[in-house]
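During the no-cost extension, the postdoctoral fellow (Dr. R.K.) reprocessed legacy sequence entries with the updated structure-token encoder. One reprocessed record is reproduced below for audit purposes.
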Amino acid sequence: MPASLELSYSKELKIRDLAKKNAVLILEAINYLYVLLGVKEDNKLNQIEEGVFNGLLISSFSNYSLNEIKHAFRLALKGTLEVKLYSKLDAITLSNVMKAYKKHKDNTLKQELNKVKELKPPTELEKETIERDFVESCVNVYLEERKTLKSPKISSELYSVFMYFYRLGAITLTDQEIENYISIADGYWFEEIKEKKKNGERISINTPMPASRQKIISGCLALFDKIKGASH
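Re-encoded structure tokens follow.
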């Protein structure tokens, strides 16, 4: 469901908000793109190229979230965007992909706004196509990335991947495991609050975690533990 993805990413923390204090997240995103594009070790960015790449990312695409940058490259790799990709990542590639993605996003959101309120339910064929696209663009990419992932990553996108495996029965949780993940999620939420305060948000350190955020964090933790990157 492309439109819902574009809308959900627009609500996430933007690159401009994390560039100075969470530079490691940008590095993780670059490593993700290496995996996605199949960039070999000897073809990765050198120190100067990485500086140029990061500079362009922060100066020209700071209104996007890192997850949306990843989404744009997945669409480009899939052929949805009219841009050529090679097994190389550099500033020119970033610029070409994001320019094409902006056009795609503008058109997608325009279509979303023009939709009639009462929509017909999707046909079985449409449901199958949506699920196949989701598996290719999100599930398979995570499975590949999980092989080298050292710690859990938290995002609404990965929660969707968790739910995919949960509905399949590939992830099962006991009541005790659910309680444990909820307890661990409290620690993640505390760190998120501290980060929000660093970024100037007026939020109390004692602010309770929203139920929706608890689900996302707990689900991502379970996904990391239960899915090891094997083929499904």
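The mean pLDDT is 88. The two ends are 22 Å apart (CA to CA). The remaining legacy entries will be reprocessed before the final report is submitted.
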